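Workshop exercise sheet. Pairs work together: one partner reads the sequence aloud, the other fills in the structure field after running the prediction. Swap roles for the next sheet.
Pair: D.N. / O.F.
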Amino acid sequence: MSRVSANGNTKASGEAVGAPSSGAHRLYSAQDMARISSSACAGCGACCRGMGDTIVLDPYDVWQLTQGLGKPFGALLGSDLNLHVEDGVILPHLVMREETQSCTFLGADGRCTVHAYRPGICRLFPLGRQFDDKKTSYFIVPNGCVKGGLSKVRIDRWLGIEDLPRYEAYKAEWRSLLRTLQARIAAEPSEEVQRNVNLYFLRTFYMNPYEGTGANSFYEELATRMRAFTAAAL
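Structure field:
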């Protein structure tokens, strides 16, 4: 069992730092109502600041951003996205502005400029996510939203993700691949081989553009890439 939080305390493997204990907080399904929507939110932007390199992006996140912005992955690197090593694996993350520590996609009005195609971790907030035997559950992050006036909303509507069951299945599969890759790199004594595997990983899942425009075509193409990568590198 593991959890991934939406407040910046995340790991690429899907495990959280300082996640609440299973007995202390209620777990929700995607069809449950949860008190997470703030009527007092007026673009304070507090949830979009000070995240460092913790907003790690998966292929679906990058696919959404490149589709929405009309820019390839390479054009976003160094400005809106950057790379870092986590548990031996090179992964992309959102960039924070140096002067304000705010996300580069946060507008001057305190609103997200990529809200329609924002990353999954951003969609979750103020929720965290737990994976358990391929079942996905959600929990409310303690001290998440700084605004009051929280009201109930159904979680799947809050997330706004097309075909959420398929997305949840994809997240479980991606998490499994990352954990296997991390173990593969940890067991590899050659730094050159480690670099080559990481570069192959980045090209396969992030750098090479996806041909389709819809979510179904993305999932199908990603499944093909995952099979090829597993056979070649894992």
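Discussion prompt: The CA atoms of residues 49 and 100 lie 8 Å apart. What would you look at next?
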